[in-house]
TrEMBL record:
One of its GO terms (molecular function) is hexosyltransferase activity. InterPro entries: WecG_TagA_CpsF (IPR004629). The keyword Glycosyltransferase applies. This is WecB/TagA/CpsF family glycosyltransferase. Signal peptide: none annotated. Pfam families: Glyco_tran_WecG (PF03808). Keywords: Glycosyltransferase, Transferase. Transmembrane segments: none annotated. It comes from Synechococcus elongatus PCC 11802. The keyword Glycosyltransferase applies.
Length: 245
């Protein structure tokens, strides 16, 4: 699928993975929709970049995405070391901006993923804030075969402009890549645990930790089982300072 020519969008590399820098991601994506094109949005951080080194299918999914935003502080640091002007763009904030844009422009939004009841609670929170928001559908991520078939039929029939998929990495990236053909003019975005935050099941890191790029420590406190995955961070840092190929 060809990329829209937008002057302020620049594609760079972190290792062999693309990262797109843009002054206004929501507008860029809105331009895609206005021209009849959809997009697969990936939010990349250091952990994901290292995971892609070990998982060629994840690396392929990232490289084939239409927009890859610098979600993690490590990715921002990597690019700044190489002289790029870049700011961190958390995926949860871009998704929120897109929902607001959807409410303003009349887009339909589909919420898919998370534990039973979580996506529905998140959608309800957004509808309370924006009564004009058009929710095309809500479905949790623990599907029976019948529910899975119905979900795919709904997406193909309704063609919602924005499809938010909260299945975690890499499952959400694989799922979008496999099913994007059902609604090719939609924005498909993997949003990890954003439904949990929006629904109040979990809290996002305090703003101070966000500002000093230590939001990952808050996630580790809330989800201590992640410690093994966090071992990727020092490996990423070492690669960042030694790999200039």
């Amino acid at each position: 699928m060809p990329l829209v020519s937008v002057p302020d969008r620049q594609r760079h590399k972190v290792f062999q993975l693309p990262v797109d820098l843009c002054a206004d991601y929501p507008t860029w994506l809105g331009d895609r929709l206005s021209q009849g094109q959809g997009a697969h949005v990936v939010t990349i951080n250091a952990e994901m970049a290292m995971q892609a080194e070990q998982d060629p299918e994840l690396g392929r999914a990232i490289r084939e995405a239409d927009l890859v935003i610098p979600d993690g502080a490590g990715v921002v640091w990597y690019l700044r070391l190489r002289g790029k002007k870049v700011r961190r763009s958390p995926g949860i904030e871009l998704a929120a901006d897109l929902i607001r844009q959807a409410a303003d422009l009349g887009w339909q939004v589909f919420f898919f993923g998370g534990a039973p009841g979580v996506a529905a609670a998140a959608a309800q929170v957004w509808q309370q804030q924006y009564p004009n928001l058009r929710v095309a559908g809500v479905q949790h991520g623990f599907l029976s075969d019948e529910e899975r078939s119905q979900l795919l039929r709904d997406l193909e029939t309704q063609q919602p402009q924005l499809i938010l998929v909260g299945l975690g990495v890499p499952r959400q990236e694989f799922w979008i890549r496999e099913h994007r053909h059902l609604s090719p003019q939609s924005i498909w975005m993997g949003i990890g645990g954003s439904f949990d935050v929006w629904s109040g099941q979990k809290q996002r890191a305090p703003r101070l930790l966000q500002q000093i790029n230590l939001e990952w420590t808050w996630r580790l406190i809330q989800e201590p089982w992640r410690w093994r995955r966090m071992l990727a961070l020092p490996r990423f840092a070492w690669r960042a300072v030694t790999d200039w190929s």
